[in-house]
Structure formats: C-alpha cells, structure tokens
C-alpha cells in the first residue's frame, strides 16, 4: 500500500501545475479544475516517486528542480506492481491505468521522467483525494 505525496492541478495545458491539499475527482472526467479532464483516456496522471531512481545522474538536478506536471505524486508502490490495465484506489477515487509513459518522450525537466514512467488513465469512480491518503492496487489484469 502506498500514499499520496502531493496533488497538482492546472486550468491550462502546458503549464506547471499548482499544488493543492485536496481535490475532487470526477467520474468519467478527471480532476475538478484541471485542464486534462474530459471524455478521453488520459484524464488523470499518476507519478510514482520511486521512478526517480530511473533518472540518469546527469539529469537528476534538472528533473528535481522542475515544477510538477502530474496530477498525483505517490509513493510506496513498486513500479512493476501497477502495470497498464490495473485499477488504483487513491483516497475515495478509482483510476484505471491505461498507459505507462507517453508516445513521445520529453527531454527536459520533470516531463523527462513523467513522459517515461508516469501512469495515465481514466476515472472509474470519483471522490475526494487528500495528501496522505492511501493508494492501493484493487485490480490487476491477468498476465
């Protein structure tokens, strides 16, 4: 079981997200007030802080100093424990993870690692999520 370390939203795409202590997650939409919400398959982004270990040494300072681009930063889950197809419960919300990474990798700042190891998906069940809430895998696809 893991925890929510931080939560981030932005009203516009392509800008650094603002930290919030709590957010309402809307079923079939995404985070209230976040520009990535909508009727599509990347409504929510989840970044496991454990992925920072995969950042090359020469990029670590740059990645660590850049602002947040993901909605949720979590800790406590091994990367291999929540593949595409799993369902995560964050606080009251349930998120189906559909993708790991993006089609095109980013080379600068925090997007460097989020574009490679971020989890992206859609909201199956809405509800409140707060910093410190538990994160757990509630469904794993058959392999």
TrEMBL record:
Pfam families in the cross-refs: MOSC
Name of the protein: MOSC domain-containing protein
InterPro entries the UniProt entry points to: MoCF_Sase_C, Pyrv_Knase-like_insert_dom_sf
Superkingdom, natural source: Bacteria
Any one GO molecular function term: catalytic activity
Residue stretches making up the MOSC domain: 18-138
């Amino acid at each position: 079981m893991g925890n929510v370390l931080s939560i981030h939203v932005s009203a516009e795409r392509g800008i650094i997200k603002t930290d919030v202590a709590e957010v309402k997650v809307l079923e079939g939409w995404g985070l209230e007030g976040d520009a990535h919400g909508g009727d599509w398959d990347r409504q929510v982004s989840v970044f496991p802080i454990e992925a920072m270990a995969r950042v090359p040494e020469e990029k670590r300072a740059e990645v660590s100093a850049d602002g947040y681009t993901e909605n949720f930063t979590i800790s406590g889950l091994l990367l291999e424990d929540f593949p595409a197809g799993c369902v995560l419960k964050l606080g009251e919300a349930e998120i189906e993870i559909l993708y790991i990474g993006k089609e095109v990798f980013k080379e600068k700042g925090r997007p460097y690692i989020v574009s490679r190891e971020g989890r992206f998906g859609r909201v199956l069940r809405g509800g409140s999520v707060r910093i410190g809430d538990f994160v757990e895998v509630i469904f794993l696809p058959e392999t």
